[in-house]
Prior knowledge:
The protein is an alpha/beta fold. Helices cover 42% and strands 15% of the residues. The strands form two sheets. It has a five-stranded mixed sheet, sandwiched between helices. A five-stranded mixed sheet has the order 7-6-8-5-9. α2 (47-54) crosses α11 (236-254), α11 packs across α16 and α12 (258-265) packs across α13 (274-286). The chain starts with a helix and ends in a 28-residue tail after the last helix.
Amino acid sequence: MxxxxxxxxxxxxxxxxxxxxxxxxxxxxxxxxxxxxxxVARTVFYAPQYVALSQGMFAQEGLxxxxxxxxxxxxxxxxxxxxxxDIALIGAETSIYVYQQGAEDPIINFxxxxxxxxxxxxxxxxxxxxxxxxxKGQNFLGQRKGGMPQMSLxxxxxxxxxxxxxxxxxxxxxxxxxxxxxxxxxxxxxVQLFEPxxxxxxxxxxxxxxxxxxxxxxELPYTVYMAKQSYLNTNSExxxxxxxxxxxxxxxxxxxxxxxxxxxxxxxxxxxDLAVLTSSIKRYKEQSTxxxxxxxxxxxxxxxxxxxxxxxxxxxxxxxxxxxxxxxxQQAISSNSTGNTEPPVKKSTTESTDAGVGAGGSS
Length: 363
């Protein structure tokens, strides 16, 4: 190759490299901020998060979000406390547990993703109609003691006059990540399942959804983005950008159909049928599971502590402002609104408030 041609080739390669690099740089020439995010499970329950990733909302804020699935709230919190994660998506109860232990660097909740329990009561045997009394004496494959799924279940059972530790044959020796597979292998008559696992099991003929724990237990900060106080103090810009993206994703979810949402999150559920994803999202939208904004409200915080008290897991009440920093959510809402600084009211993302699962239907 002649020197002139070689020089042109080198210049072209350099220009291509610059173009590729510029494509990864946020608008305004800002440097990309890396955030290590730990989620407690891979579930359609977290659809807004996957929308923020797949639709480039985090990237638009100049964030490079590195997502890792760390099964179990206790394990995800351990990752956060040991600085293996910057931000974690876990139940807000875990921040209270850390606070109760006298942490010098408390875990602060700063953006809510879901406002109801995301599990469904799943029965192995097909039933013409479901009554809570039918649970008495049955083998129930439970969740981890002190975790939100188990506490929400116990809260619901007591509301229906059932003592979970006396009236059920409760099985709690199976790790969170293995509960669904254990039920699929024949353990238990009843189990709590997140979507899309509930819909997958229905499709496989392993039983049916008979009730929604989310509808039964009410609104609470079920899954929340949280970080150490020290991290938020030194990385407030990153936390704000993160919350901005989450809020835009929540609004996107509210204005798009289950079919559109399913298409958007498919990259995170490559082994799940699109129809199952769609029906799972429809269930969650119909019962207003996804929060419409990242604010944690006082009534939700109170309900969370009522659930914890019912389970015997709350040593003493914790006021909202001890463990919740609303400033990031407030700023996200304000900067993305059109002259209205009031947070949107958290309400159903569809016209219907019926859970649509009384008969186990997923359509």
